Amino acid sequence: MIKITDLTKTYGSKTALNDVNLTIENGQIFGLLGHNGAGKSTTIKCLTSIIEPTSGSIAFDDQSLPEHRQEIKEKISYVPDTPDLFLQLSASEYWNLMASAYNVDPKHLTERLKELTDLFEMTQVSDETLSEFSHGMRQKVIIIGALLAEPEIWILDEPLQGLDPQAAFDLKELIKSYAQKGNTVIFSTHDLATAQQLCDQIAILKTGKLVYNGSVADLLANYPGDSLEQVYLQLVGRHTNDNELINELTAGDSAHD
């Protein structure tokens, strides 16, 4: 279980997270939703020890993250929000680097790499450098590297960005099967349909504050007749029936016709 208590992160006068409290059970698929700048990536970077919170605490199975950082980091694989990393390496070199970092058994590595590279259709390009790849292909390389060690916790920041429909489908199936084995998956997304399809629990953030935490079904039950998109926009965005700006823009376009 992951317990986030009163998590706050400030950058000068800006508050990126404001007293966020979350509990993520083992084996859950947990989605972080919110507009750009809502605090999703900041939460993820605190969980993965990339940044330190200003105040509050994070514990994994009752172990404090600051006190057991290395032990906890060994249980986590992370897919960042950009795959533009280690561009001088070939795909194979990157995967070997990840395998070495997690002490993956060489025999298991061979089997796991074949399974994942076949799935994501990356076998034939494994010797090419990441700098030669498209955004989507780089994303596949990072995802494969994150799954080599089969960690207990998989944390992904906007993992579907840039993936083609087949790769996105395969990743979602991997997430489901991964959680079914008792592992925990935490991911951020702007894709409401994906969140509704995959997540056991979601957290919706707005300007660093938690505005909802629970299941999609429970959320929709509080707004009979509304879609998840409509509910989401009522919580964090401009209401769906607020068309003043849209009407102004449309009128402006018409005036130029």
UniProtKB/TrEMBL annotation:
InterPro entries assigned to the protein according to its UniProt record, in alphabetical order: AAA+_ATPase (IPR003593), ABC_transporter-like_ATP-bd (IPR003439), ABC_transporter-like_CS (IPR017871), ABC_Transporter_VariousFunc (IPR051782), P-loop_NTPase (IPR027417)
Q: Name one Pfam family in it.
A: ABC_tran
GO MF annotations in UniProt: ATP binding; ATP hydrolysis activity
Transport is among the record's keywords? yes
Q: Which UniProt keywords apply?
A: ATP-binding, Nucleotide-binding, Transport
Q: Which residues form the ABC transporter domain?
A: 2-232
Q: Which domain of life is it from?
A: Bacteria
In Swiss-Prot or TrEMBL terms, this protein is called ABC transporter ATP-binding protein
This protein's species is Bavariicoccus seileri
